[in-house]
Amino acid sequence: MEIISKENIAYQPGSLLTGATFNFCPGCGHGTVVRLIMEVVEEMGIQSQTIGITPVGCSVLLYDFYKIDMIQAAHGRATAVATGLKRVLPDTFVFTYQGDGDLAAIGTSETIHTCNRGENIAIIYINNGIYGMTGGQMAPTTIPDMVTSTSPRGRDTAKMGHHLNITEMIARLEGTFFATRQAVHTASAVRKTKRAIRTTFENQKLKQGTSFIEVVTACNSGWKMPPIQANKWLEEKMLPYYPLGDVKVNGKML
User: Fold this and answer.
1) pLDDT at residue 2 greater than cutoff 60
2) How many domains does the chain have?
3) Residue 3 domain-assigned?
4) How high is the pLDDT of residue 4?
């Protein structure tokens, strides 16, 4: 048996992951974001103070992977649950983890009003442009001409409306303190996303309002593409509609 020395280890999962096998499809960006959140919590030393809210969707089993307190919310209601929790326990670090089918569709109202009130929480929003878990249907975030299981000829904006740029929408709300859009399809993008996640937690100490991070990811299963092709499609097709970078920092639009 070959013995691997510590010097040859390129990556080792953090101590706040349970070790349970992720249920995400191979090539999916969810696994990377899920890992990054716990890396940040571990590095900040806030495990006992952190509570996550997960709704229905690909992240529904997040509580199986994390060694922190988690609460299951109804579909679309994660920020409402997080609001109540944060108001009762104001010194905790509270985050929601939601997909676009949850946050930008059934949860649009909760999202907008939570940010408008400036609730002192972190919202982590995964945008892959479709309903990933339920069969790849068109979502509010589906870009023009994108093929899905319910728009086989592509999204026709004349009939189906335009995609929602949620981050730009909520950034304009007075209660939003920080809003950014990142990705995890490259090593550089992963590093930037991790820094943004840490910022959303650090901002809770400032008690200035809502911190919001959108992560644009590929859904190679729903898009019917192998992972490498899906990441290329994300760069070429999605990012022109969802440009990466900070939108609002310290309460000021950029």
Assistant:
1) no
2) 1
3) no
4) 55
